[in-house]
Design goal:
The complex is a heterodimer of chains A (about 120) and B (about 150). Chain A is α/β, with parallel strands linked by helices and about 120 residues long. Chain A has helices at about 25-40, 60-75, 85-95, 105-115, and strands at about 5-10, 15-20, 45-50, 55, 80, 100-105. Chain A is built from four helices and six strands. The radius of gyration of chain A is 13 Å and the shape is globular. Chain B is an alpha+beta fold and about 150 residues long. Classes of the chains: A alpha/beta (about 120), B alpha+beta (about 150). The complex binds adenosine-5'-triphosphate (ATP) and magnesium ion.
Chain lengths: ~120, ~150
């Protein structure tokens, strides 16, 4: 049981797709790969696609919030797409919905950012 | 009705065992015929408790032992998750939403809040230097019963 991180750049937007289970054990690789892509690439914004994320706990909340702060400190925006019911409940409990916009699809998430940039 | 059943799992305080623990408990609980949502909640709760034992109880040391016990009694699941780590100094404070003693590790302080929300009963027993034991209960109404 592990986690795959798929990265794709679409103009100045970094698309991050998480597949599998995000917990304390797998959080480091997400942190590292996103950090690396954000700092090295020329992307301003991030779309975090959670369509194939089967499991997440509070460790995931921490990583997502951490990357959100990084993107924001660089003047960009980070949004979420394709959120599952179980992950949605954690977002609600933690108040993450108040700071992160959530879109139905990757496409609508990207569209929202292109208006911004 | 599932009657009475019991399981106990003891494992090293290594992060790869977080998935092992939640998947094992989920497999054990299947006999109660839970919904996907209930199963997700139970997996999340086990993951929170085991992660806390590893990160906070044992401070990241892999030499500790985490113990998970599950009892099924009728339609009720009882979970006990314990460590023999450092214990919690101030339980009231620790249970506050967003409180974390390790913000530098990107913890969000939501573990206790999630566990309390996903379970029907939740209790913390802790003693400094001796460890922490969480006792929780959740009723799993059978899906079959809903149709009667
Ligand atoms: N098993 C434990 N042993 C020692 N201290 C603990 C234990 N479990 C929790 N704590 C203490 O309680 C605090 C709150 O725990 P909680 O799970 O709510 O948040 P967290 O683990 O810090 O962050 P998150 O769970 O969101 O990643 C912890 O920061 C820690 O100080
Ligand atoms: Mg925790």
């Amino acid at each position: 049981m592990s986690l795959q991180v798929e990265l794709e750049q679409h103009r100045n937007v970094l698309i991050v797709r998480l597949r599998g289970e995000l917990d304390h054990h797998t959080a480091d690789v997400v942190r590292f790969k996103m950090e690396d892509a954000i700092l090295r690439g020329r992307c301003d914004h991030v779309v975090l696609s959670l369509k194939d994320l089967q499991f997440m706990d509070s460790s995931g909340l921490g990583v997502i919030l951490g990357r959100y702060k990084l993107v924001k400190s660089r003047g960009g925006k980070m949004v979420i797409s394709d959120i599952q019911t179980s992950v949605k409940r954690l977002f609600e409990l933690s108040g993450l919905f108040k700071i992160l916009s959530v879109y139905e699809t990757e496409r609508s998430a990207i569209a929202s950012l292109e208006v911004v940039s | 009705m599932s009657g009475h059943n019991y399981m106990k799992l003891a494992f090293a305080s290594r992060s790869e065992n977080e998935a092992f623990a939640r998947i094992t408990v989920a497999a054990f609980v299947t006999q109660l015929d839970p919904t996907m949502e209930q199963l997700d909640e139970i997996k999340t709760v086990v993951s929170e408790a085991v992660t806390n034992a590893i990160i906070h109880g044992y401070n990241g040391s892999e030499q500790g032992t985490v113990t998970v016990e599950a009892i099924i009694d009728g339609d009720t699941l009882s979970l006990t998750i314990s460590d023999e780590g450092g214990g919690i100094e101030d339980v009231e404070l620790a249970r506050q939403p967003l409180y974390t003693s390790k913000p530098e590790l990107e913890r969000s302080g939501m573990g206790f809040t999630i566990m309390e929300n996903f379970m029907d009963a939740f209790e913390v027993e802790t003693s400094q230097g001796a460890g922490t034991k969480l006792r929780m209960k959740k009723r799993i109404e059978s899906k079959k019963a809903l149709f009667n």
